Amino acid sequence: MKNLLRLLGRRLIALPFMALGAVLLVFFLMSFSKYDPAVAALGENATAEQLAAYRHEMGFDLPWWRQFVNYLGGLLHGDLGVYGVNKDSVAARIADSLPITLQLTFVGLLIAVVFAVVFGVLAALYRDTWVDQAIRVVSIISIATPSFWLGVLLIYVMQIQLGLLPGSGELVPFHVDPGAWLSRIIMPAFALGLPVAGQMTRIIRTSMVEELDKDYVRTAIGAGVPKPTVVVRNVFRNALITPITVLGMKIGYLLGGAIVIEVIFQLPGMGTVMFEGINGNEPTLVQGVVLVVALAFIVINIIVDLLYVLINPRIRTV
After folding, report:
1. Per-residue pLDDT tens for 116-165?
2. Which CB contacts under 8 angstroms, 24+ apart, belong to 72-75?
3. Main-chain dihedrals φ then ψ at residue 88, nearest 5 degrees
4. Model confidence pLDDT, tens digit, residues 237-256
């Protein structure tokens, strides 16, 4: 428990520094934009006086480092800034869109994990047979398939050609209509999770094969313990150590991929907000999205690290 708390403390100490680095990088890159936020907010017909007043009010006429300091000061008070001519709250916009991105990421992750565990274990148990070879081919194809291309293909086949699933429209809340929610989110989640499923299948298969070849497995089976019992109680748990470590990085990939998938499927999540911020030259909106996504990625990896310590007893005393 002491090692677990020590690891958690180190991660929490590092969290604000990593978030600061992400915000600084995005803020610095957005400062090179050739577009004027005042023009983006007020329009091309705004007068020079109106543009100057807007820049002064929003602080865009200050040096970039002063703008960054002011932005950090707002963050310390929970203020992500405002955007647009109406000075809408960035925090409120993200609060509306973040649940959609998290739902998409979770369902995509669930699809990837279920597929990877089932096919990874089967490939290991029936290695070097036609089952293993077929799963290998499917997993390689999955890895090589870009999520955005698969998303477009699914829309064309499932919505346009067959009319089975909706490819666009609002995401109905799960508690209102679970069927409508599932029909709307299943295609983008499948497009998001399939490449990760292919990668995780290969990793689980390799980990399972390594565990199955160890002496304790042969000893247990030779002592009369049924092989399914050994596989479920020992082999599978030990084989999960490496996949869980890799899964932490894949969750970050899913969060980033969800932003692209949301634009393709017209889901009003963080991806749509990011796209609007970039297209409309709203730096505070882009910075808010990046900050929230970076914090989510960091927190998820902290949770994965803690799970790794709980699953792997060999490092609890390190």
Report:
1. 999 999 998 888 899 999 999 999 999 888 888 898 898 888 888 887 88
2. 72/20, 72/23, 75/23, 75/291
3. -70, 150
4. 778 777 877 777 777 778 77
CATH number at residue 223: 1.10.3720.10
Burial of residue 32 (number of CB atoms within 10 Å: 0-12, 13-18, 19+): exposed
List the end-to-end C-alpha distance of the chain, in Å, as a whole number: 11
**Separation of alpha carbons 64 and 28, rounded Å:** 8
Helices (H), ranges, 213-240: 215-222, 227-230, 236-239
Structural domain range at position 194? 93-315
Same domain, 293 and 175: yes
Dihedral, CA atoms, 229, 235, 238, 242, nearest 10 degrees? -140
167-189 pLDDT per residue, tens? 666 777 888 888 888 888 899 99
> What is the identity of the amino acid at 86?
N
Q: Name the β-bridge partners of 82.
A: 89
